[in-house]
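User: Please predict the structure of the protein below. I'd like the answer in structure-token form so I can feed it into my own downstream comparison script.

Assistant: Understood. Taking the following sequence of 162 residues as input:
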Amino acid sequence: MIVVSDSGPLIALSKIKHLDILEKIFGDIIIPEAVWIEVVENGDGRPGAEDVRKSPWIKVNKVKNQIGIEALKHEIGIGKSEAIILAMELNANIILIDDKIARGIAGSMGLKVAGTLSIIYEAIDNKLINENFNEIIKTMRKNNIWISDEIIDIIEKDGLQI
């Protein structure tokens, strides 16, 4: 399975000490260079930086389609743009991205999209973590991770279909 991630899920899962569930669910995760720079280099000392740096199952790939990146980056930023274009280039099975606009763009390009909450739901459902969904939501909000009630309702109703 080919899985590409933006920075949002990496940072959010690191903040709640559950970055490892990505490896448990998907194996290797691929990120574009811009996401590495955003999380590890520019984010040095912040949540996620050291966790991502030390995770050998997170692989960094260079994006070839610079025109595609240029077309998207003004609307959604360089990291999300590179993640979407890389997912297209690799014919990824899924892209992990939380930003609503970026999710819409990725979906309109035919990519299957999942976000942090659906990953957590999947991990709970498969007994990869022992906390319940509401406990995790409280922990996320305590760690300043914004979550809309609408998304929580959708995840609790539909879960994650990988």
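That's the full token string. DSSP finds ten helices and five strands in the chain.
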